[in-house]
Design a protein that fits this description.
Elements (H helix, E strand, L loop, with lengths): L1 H26 L27 E4 L20 E4 L8 E7 L4 E6 L6 E4 L18 E7 L14 E6 L3 E10 L11 E6 L2 E14 L4 E9 L8 E5 L3 E11 L9 E8 L3 E2 L3 E8 L2
Length: 283
């Protein structure tokens, strides 16, 4: 009998224990699902109490060329500013040139309220696009490896633009004598062969960054031949003429024979194709 009573009291005790556990679980408030503060863009846990750096691309010119800082070798210098209230450790940056490749750079430690220049880099020629008026567009991305804890993570990117080393107009004209320049650029003549067709090119430089400007050029022909690479020097804005000639020994096709003036440096510019027809008499 005593054993039965003992078992009964044990069962009552177990029942009350589990009842208390169930009541506690239902009574306790359920935890709220919240995004950690560190994952919220632009914020960090305790940022109001901590001193943090804040890296942003720096500039020195007016828009749209604000980020286009150049050295005396015509190389791009990216500026990094720490506008936070704490020093920033070393990190990394990436410069993305539209229409071309990208360059990775090292950002040294940046003290608070300080702007530092990064290693100068050359702008690839492929970035200067004719449809952009030969401006080069690029993106600046700071702290690419997320090495720096910042007070604002949303201002590490800048969109930059640089004007070309020079802007110019290039035109070519075909003529029957040296220095002849006509508005159409093309000619058709009937003469005794052999003879020569003379080409006069005009290079008009409308802007340039560096003085003097060395312009490298070359004449190209429809038969696949190319002339030597030559250089003309501009000490000021203006127009200069260059010339070439083509010896003709038989009749040519007006639609198939042409010559073109190509600028190789500082950027790639091309003239019109000066087409010509020579009808050789006495053949």
């Amino acid at each position: 009998m005593k054993n039965k009573v003992k078992v009964l009291w044990m069962m009552i005790g177990i029942f009350f224990f589990f009842s208390l556990v169930i009541c506690f679980l239902y009574a306790a408030p359920s935890p709220k699902l919240t995004k950690p503060a560190s994952n919220i863009p632009g914020t960090h846990p305790g940022q109001l109490l901590r001193k943090l750096p804040d890296l942003v691309p720096g500039g020195q010119y007016s828009d749209p060329y604000y980020f286009c800082a150049m050295d005396n070798q015509n190389q791009l210098v990216i500026l990094v500013k720490n506008q936070g209230n704490s020093d920033a450790p070393a990190s990394a940056a990436r410069i993305e040139f539209l229409g071309s490749n990208f360059v990775n750079l090292t950002i040294p430690p940046v003290p608070q309220n300080t702007t530092v220049p990064l290693q100068p880099i050359s702008i690839p020629k492929a970035c200067y696009q004719s449809f952009n008026n030969y401006d080069c567009n690029f993106n600046i991305v700071l702290d690419t490896n997320n090495q720096v804890t910042e007070s604002n993570e949303n201002n590490n990117i800048g969109k930059g633009k640089c004007w070309p080393p020079a802007r110019m107009e290039v035109k070519l004209s075909a003529g029957t004598k040296p220095g002849e320049f006509n508005s159409t650029g093309s000619i058709g003549i009937s003469v005794k062969c052999p003879t020569k067709v003379y080409f006069t090119g005009r290079i008009n430089v409308t802007s340039m960054k560096l003085y003097p400007l060395n312009v490298k050029y070359q004449f190209a022909r429809s038969d696949g031949a190319s002339g030597p690479v030559k250089t003309v020097v501009f000490n000021a804005l203006g127009t200069k003429e260059v010339s070439d000639s083509w010896a003709i020994i038989k009749t040519t096709d007006f639609n198939g024979a042409w010559e073109q003036l190509k600028i190789l440096e500082p950027l790639n510019f091309e003239s019109n194709k000066a087409s010509f027809r020579v009808t050789c008499t006495g053949q």
